[in-house]
Write a structure and sequence with these properties.
This protein has helices at residues 16-29, 51-62, 80-90, 102-105, 114-117, 133-143, 161-167, and strands at 2-9, 33-38, 68-70, 94-101, 122-127, 149-153. By secondary structure, it is of the alpha/beta class. β2 (33-38), α2 (51-62) and β3 form a beta-alpha-beta unit. The chain starts with a strand and ends with a helix.
Length: 171
């Protein structure tokens, strides 16, 4: 069975930590491809940079990697109800692996409908700076015991888009 990774996010801006994590997740998870899925209008972030600009930076950051690609959806926001069926139709008979940092992983219980999709997908969680792996494993066991997750050390756990925006830097 083909195994693909889905790395959804704002990527505002994409940075070396995103790319390094995607490459590590592909290797650890045996993924043939990792698809970066940039969100047009994120639910949780106000004042995101222009989508076309973020997409151009993402294309530039990924162009050297044959196993990292961009996947675009037309919908402005991601949701379990809409995004998951669309992914299933684009990748029939593929095992879906969702990549995310531990910071995003702590928000999983708040996602509407997450319990319905967890039996069908795997998670690959990259530990971010300041997050403890054993604490995160306990969190998952308590709040989402049905989750099948692989926890990996993020290759660049201190790099963050918010920190780059604050400093006014771009990759």
């Amino acid at each position: 069975m083909r195994s693909v990774g889905i790395f959804a996010g704002t990527f505002d801006p994409v940075h070396e930590g995103h790319v390094a994590f995607a490459l590590a997740a592909a290797k650890t998870g045996g993924l043939q491809k990792v698809y970066f899925l940039p969100e047009h209008q994120p639910w949780t972030k106000q004042n995101a940079s222009d989508f076309k600009g973020r997409l151009a930076l993402l294309e530039k950051a990924l162009k050297s990697y044959g196993n990292l690609e961009i996947l675009e959806f037309d919908e402005p926001h991601f949701s379990i109800a809409i995004t998951i069926p669309e992914l299933k139709s684009r990748f029939p008979n593929a095992e879906l692996n969702f990549l995310m940092g531990s910071d995003a992983g702590y928000n999983l219980p708040k996602w509407e409908g997450i319990e319905t999709v967890l039996p069908e997908v795997k998670l690959i969680i990259g530990m971010r700076a300041g997050d403890d792996e054993s604490g995160f494993v306990k969190f998952l066991a308590k709040h989402l015991p049905q989750a099948r997750a692989t926890i990996i050390a993020s290759p660049k756990p201190h790099v963050s888009s918010s920190r780059l925006r604050t400093k006014g830097k771009r990759p």
